[in-house]
């Protein structure tokens, strides 16, 4: 297979994994899809989603919509595009870590599809932070900040996957253990390049530092609470990192 074919396969896999966007028309039988190898393109997917959200926000402001409802609609569209995938992980992790007495019970709660009080509170805070942070930005700033936040948040998620072992033997995250180093390096480079190109140097450095800090905190927290990472931990990391980055850039 050609290099371009392999890269396209990774991109299709990354989009299909992180969003609910239809990618069947890009896929062809026989392509060697690999979720772990697709890590390099996760920041690209996040940047693309963020760019759409930022453009929508700026467009609504241009049409005369007030900043707060414009931000709410923009974040809502991003949730729709991703199917609330990361938010579901945040809610599950909040319920498990908030309600479980030991690791086994916490992991058991996280498997439950029902959302408890801890999950609801985490979702409310996450949505409030993102909407209010976006509403505090002019449209031109949001167009630059949203892709950076999306890219760095997905890279933070990849960093947690790389640093932590699976917390359980089954599940999606366990099948993605052992991410290739070159894929991680490429993803980190793309995320850093996105920040450097779209933001002034001090703000780009701030965004990268905040993303790295969020990843480290989530690593330490997940290791202590669960003994490793799960798909819910990865989703929660993406949400926490994005909230922190947008708050810092606002």
From TrEMBL:
InterPro entries: CobS (IPR003805). It catalyses: alpha-ribazole + adenosylcob(III)inamide-GDP = adenosylcob(III)alamin + GMP + H(+); alpha-ribazole 5'-phosphate + adenosylcob(III)inamide-GDP = adenosylcob(III)alamin 5'-phosphate + GMP + H(+). Pathway: Cofactor biosynthesis; adenosylcobalamin biosynthesis; adenosylcobalamin from cob(II)yrinate a,c-diamide: step 7/7. GO terms for biological process: cobalamin biosynthetic process. It is a multi-pass membrane protein. Pfam families: CobS (PF02654). It is an enzyme of class 2 (transferase). Its EC number is 2.7.8.26. One of its GO terms (cellular component) is plasma membrane. This is Adenosylcobinamide-GDP ribazoletransferase. The gene is cobS.
């Amino acid at each position: 297979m050609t290099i371009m074919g392999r890269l396209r396969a990774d991109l299709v896999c990354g989009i299909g994994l992180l969003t609910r966007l239809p990618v069947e028309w890009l896929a062809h039988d026989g392509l060697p899809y690999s979720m772990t190898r697709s890590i390099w393109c996760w920041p690209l997917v996040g940047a693309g989603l963020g760019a759409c959200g930022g453009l929508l926000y700026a467009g609504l402001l241009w049409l005369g919509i007030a900043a707060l409802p414009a931000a709410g609609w923009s974040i809502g569209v991003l949730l729709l595009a991703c199917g609330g995938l990361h938010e579901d992980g945040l809610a599950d992790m909040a319920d498990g870590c908030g309600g479980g007495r030991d690791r086994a019970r916490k992991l058991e709660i996280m498997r439950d599809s029902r959302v408890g009080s801890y999950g609801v509170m985490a979702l409310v805070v996450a949505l409030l932070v993102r909407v209010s942070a976006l509403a505090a930005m002019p449209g031109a700033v949001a167009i630059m900040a949203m892709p950076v936040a999306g890219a760095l948040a997905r890279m933070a998620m990849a960093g947690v996957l790389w640093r932590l072992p699976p917390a359980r033997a089954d599940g999606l995250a366990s099948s993605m253990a052992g991410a290739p180093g070159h894929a991680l390096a490429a993803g980190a480079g793309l995320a850093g390049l996105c920040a450097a190109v779209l933001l002034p140097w001090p703000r780009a450095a701030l965004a990268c530092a905040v993303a790295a800090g969020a990843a480290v905190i989530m690593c330490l927290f997940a290791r202590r609470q669960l003994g490793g990472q799960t798909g819910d931990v990865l989703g929660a990391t993406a949400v926490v990192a994005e909230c922190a980055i947008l708050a810092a850039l606002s």
